[in-house]
Amino acid sequence: MADGNSSDEDFSDDWLLYSRRPEWSDLEPLPQDDGDNPVVMIQYSERFNDVFGYLRAVISRQEKSERALELTKDAARLNAANYTVWQYRRDILKALNADLYEELSYIGRVIVDNPKNYQVWHHRRVIVEWLDDPTSELALTESILDMDAKNYHAWQHRQWVIKNYKYVTLHVAMMMFAHGDASALLRDARPVSRVLFDDELHYVDRLISEDMRNNSAWNERFFVLKHVGFTPEVLEREVNYVITRVGLIKNNESPWNFLRGLLQQGTGKLAQFPSVIEFCEALYNDGIRSPYLLAFLVDLYEEQYFDTIESGGNEAEAELYHQKVQDLCESMANQHDKIRSKYWRYIAENFRRKASERATAGNGRNGV
């Protein structure tokens, strides 16, 4: 079934309209009210009108029964994106004190058929919250990401699980062990609170190894690191990790963005790791002209220029950085990023203006 679209494809040939079922003879379906003068009448199928007519009747009299629960299942098959269907289904589940693990299994199958449907993922989240049991969620999202490694809904759900269940209760930890998901935890005697985050790094490392252009995996790696903490050791490790990947595919925006995100931590300086400067300049000297490399060098040399001026450093060194910024911006505008030539000329002009203002302010302080 296509994500969120009305469809009759999933129904068997012997499926019977509710209007022909004796057990539903006590209920009169309610037609859809489009008003007196509808602008555009949607041509629903007979099955769609039948199911939703009975659903409106059930909701109207607030019937919460097993047959109503089955009705919501048919309604969801016809339109999995209908919020009211899922909300009323949850109301029925509560009223019947239904088996939520059975519901979890059901919604898992629905998600496989509708992996980019917001409502089905939301329903899954609510059921997990009611159960307070996330043991199946990483496996589910991994299976969906195997289908599409950049599925936003799957990544959002996965991050929600990891963030909200990072402090796994002993009860859940034992359940994870029973399902084979926490054997490493008990074998290695690792703190329970670190399991999900630690294991996630291994997972995203595999995804990045399979596709280094998978921006979603890089984003997930940063998400994990942010919640674990950017200690000096973590920063150094991750800087080495990312520059190794950049070295394999130079013209890959994802790791360059990841590198910038890392360097915003620590001192917040692009130049805080000499290895990064050496790596980038070596790429440039080897003739690499990736626009992501050049853009990084523009910001790096601008930072070094102003740091040199602020510290009262060598004027010739500062002037060298100044000239590098100008040359790189010109190179980007004329050769390597011509579609944004006006942007790069603006960056160059803005840098010259800030440098001039800084020089004027410095002369003023010196009494010139």
From TrEMBL:
SUPFAM superfamilies per UniProt: Protein prenylyltransferase
InterPro entries: Prenyl_trans_a
A Pfam family per the record: PPTA
GO MF annotation, one: protein farnesyltransferase activity
UniProtKB keywords: Magnesium, Prenyltransferase, Repeat, Transferase
Cofactor requirement: Mg(2+)
GO terms for cellular component: CAAX-protein geranylgeranyltransferase complex; protein farnesyltransferase complex
Gene3D superfamilies, sorted: Protein prenylyltransferase (1.25.40.120)
Enzyme Commission code: 2.5.1.58, 2.5.1.59
Protein family: Belongs to the protein prenyltransferase subunit alpha family.
Name assigned to this protein: Protein farnesyltransferase/geranylgeranyltransferase type-1 subunit alpha
Annotated source species: Anopheles maculatus
Lineage summary: Eukaryota, Metazoa, Ecdysozoa, Arthropoda, Hexapoda
